[in-house]
Amino acid sequence: MELLLVRHGRPHRQHAADGDGADPHLTPQGRAEADLLADYLADHPATAPTVVYSSPMRRARQTAEAITSRLVVPLRVDDRLREFDHGAPSYVPLELTAPGQTQAELWRALETGVWGRHTFDPDAFARRIDAVFDEIIATNRSTTVAVVCHGGVLNSFLGGVLARPRGMFFQPEYTSVCRVVASGRGRRLLTLNETTHLQLGRAAEPDAVRDRRHA
User: Fold this and answer.
1) Annotated binding site
2) What CATH fold (topology level) applies to the domain 2-210?
3) Is the CB of residue 81 less than 8 Å from the CB of residue 53?
4) Pairing mode, strands 186-194 and 177-183
5) Is the CB of residue 93 less than 8 Å from the CB of residue 13?
6) CA-wise closest residue to 193 among 50, 4, 63
7) How far apart are the C-alpha atoms of 106 and 112, rounded to whole Å?
8) How far apart are the C-alpha atoms of 11 and 24, rounded to whole Å?
9) CA count, 13 A, side-chain hemisphere, 57
10) What is the pLDDT of residues 17-36, one digit of tens each?
11) How confident is the model at residue 213 (pLDDT cuts 50, 70, 90)?
12) Which stretches of the chain are assigned E, i.e. beta strand?
């Protein structure tokens, strides 16, 4: 079977005062990114997923809903796909830094269990991610499945596929796709951080729209 691993679209930067903590909604740009991915998958039916799994966190679920609405395939929300920042007071994207913490320190979160002011059990997180992907693979043989999740989830699972030491090793772009082939003989990474759908979408935009979106 083939796994399409998708990072969610661009979310709002939320703080404790906003009330949503580390569970923000997508921005308008994030929704547009999710729609571009959904259109791209629909235009390539031979490799499109027949089912979509999603983290329950808003930024992932809203991205997944864009895909399932366009493809008309089932959506299965699994709590085990939630990010390690679940319950944190604010959302800190991988590409930014948390107050009082350097980028290098943030990127050791899968080893240390420290993400800004939020702490988690990195061993329990790794076991949870391994378990959910083992189940997804075992349940969906000989088909293509999309899993919409988060940067930490992707680094944890793909680090295992590549037999890397635990830790962050790449920064997935918003709505990027990583492809993995899984079978009884093992798992193999095919592509990392695909953003073809975003490039095609931007190329098709009128100049005025593109300039306004990046202003």
Assistant:
1) 59
2) Rossmann fold (3.40.50)
3) yes
4) antiparallel
5) yes
6) 4
7) 9
8) 6
9) 30
10) 455 678 999 999 999 999 99
11) very low
12) 2-7, 51-54, 75-77, 114-115, 118-119, 144-149, 177-183, 186-194
Residue in 90, 67, 83, 68 with CA at minimum distance from that of residue 17 = 90
Strand partners, 146: 4, 52
Q: Return d(Cα 17, Cα 186) in angstroms, integer.
A: 45
79 and 23 Cβ atoms separated by less than 8 Å: no
Of the candidates 147, 17, 144, 14, the residue with the CA atom closest to the CA atom of residue 91: 14
- Please state, rounded to an integer, the average pLDDT across all residues of the chain: 90
Q: Could you list the active site residues?
A: 8, 83
Are the CB atoms for 144 and 50 separated by under 8 Å? yes
Look at residues 126, 128, 129, 130 and name the one whose alpha carbon lies nearest to residue 167: 126
Please list, residue by residue across 126-152, b when 16 or more beta carbons sit within 10 angstroms of its beta carbon and e when fewer do. Answer: bebbeebbeebbeebeeebbbbbbbbb
CB neighbourhood size of 164 (10 A): 11
91-147, pLDDT tens digit by residue?
Answer: 888 887 766 778 888 889 999 999 888 999 999 999 999 999 999 999 999 999 999
Cα 195–179–107 angle (5° rounding)?
70
Main-chain phi, psi angles of 68, to 5 degrees: -70, -30
How many whole angstroms separate alpha carbon 204 and alpha carbon 96?
29
Two tokens at 171?
A: 């920064």
Q: Give CA–CA dist 7/119, Å, rounded.
A: 22
Instruction: State how far the Cα of 151 lies from the Cα of 186, in Å rounded to an integer.
Output: 23
